[in-house]
Amino acid sequence: MKGISLDPEGAEMATLDGMISLRGRRVLEIGCGDGRLTVELARRSRRVEAIDPDRLAIAGGRRILPANLKARVRFHVGQGESLPFADRSFDVAVMSRSL
Amino acid sequence: MVHALLSARRVLIDSGLLLDIHPMPRKRAIFCEASEGRKAVGYLRESGARIRYQRAQKALDQVVSQGLFRLRASTIFTFRYRARSLKDLRRYLQQRWTEASVDRVTAGRINRVLGSDRGKVIVLEEAVRMSLLEKQ
Q: Chain A residue closest to B60 (CA)?
């Protein structure tokens, strides 16, 4: 958004990188919002499925996704309480401000 | 909230990992920052957010106590929002956050500190907890 930058020091991803390696992993992001974190998760993992109930936010997420990451990410409109995915299909689930 | 955690658990492989990130139920501080340092100007006015984040932590504690997940790691870091002007910060809060605003007293302090110096920025800080849980 114009005039505001979020986490310019990269504290969130530095903390995440210190806690877990996403390399080669299948990641589910529950409550992806506008995709700010999705991009960073995609850079680090094999594949990201990102879900959020807000259709407009999802559209924003699709817009900001760099072309080189598009094949790695799929966005879904839906609720975290009823995930449209098979049992035991992800290595990592990420919930950022979505609980 | 526990429902969402149970849903996440279902789609995780055995020993799969759940990473949760949510703000601590604390006041968010606002500063004005320039090359010579920074000055505290107040706190964000919020209603409801702290209760929501307390509930999020309670839900995590609950699935751990039930033996559904094991807590592997947890840490707190500072997340910053950097705004070029009070107008930008207010627009962001209005569009992205519910029940959060900059009150008139804090806005007055911001305007006094910022003055006409275009090099200064407004920084909103929040303490955020990141927790890594393993499916049991």
A: A99
Q: Are strands A73-77 and A4-6 parallel, antiparallel or unpaired?
A: unpaired
Look up the pTM and report it: 0.93
The C-alpha atoms of residue B47 and residue B69 are separated, in whole angstroms, by: 31
pLDDT tens profile A24-47: 999 999 999 999 999 999 999 999
- For A66-86, give one letter per residue: b (16+ CB within 10 A) or e: eeeeeebbebbeeebeebebe
| pLDDT-above-90 percentage for chain B | 78
> Which residue in chain A has the smallest CA separation from B81?
A6
Task: Mark yes or no for CB contact A82/B7 under 8 Å.
Answer: yes
> Rounded to a whole number, what is the distance in Å from the CA of A36 to chain B's nearest CA?
13
Task: For residue range A65-80, list pLDDT tens digits in order.
Answer: 999 999 999 999 999 9
Residues 6+ apart with CB under 8 A from A73: A38, A42, A47, A48, A49, A50, A65
ipTM of the complex: 0.95
Contact B130 A4 (CB under 8 A): no
Instruction: With CA atoms as reference, report the closest residue to A98 among B11, B71, B4.
Output: B4
Distances (CA, A) of B122 to A6, A21, B86, B92: 12, 33, 7, 13
> Is the CB of A96 inside 8 Å of chain B's CB atoms?
yes
User: Is A8's Cβ below 8 Å from some Cβ in B?
Assistant: yes
Distances in Å between the Cα of B109 and the Cα atoms of A87, B34, B85 are 53, 15, 13
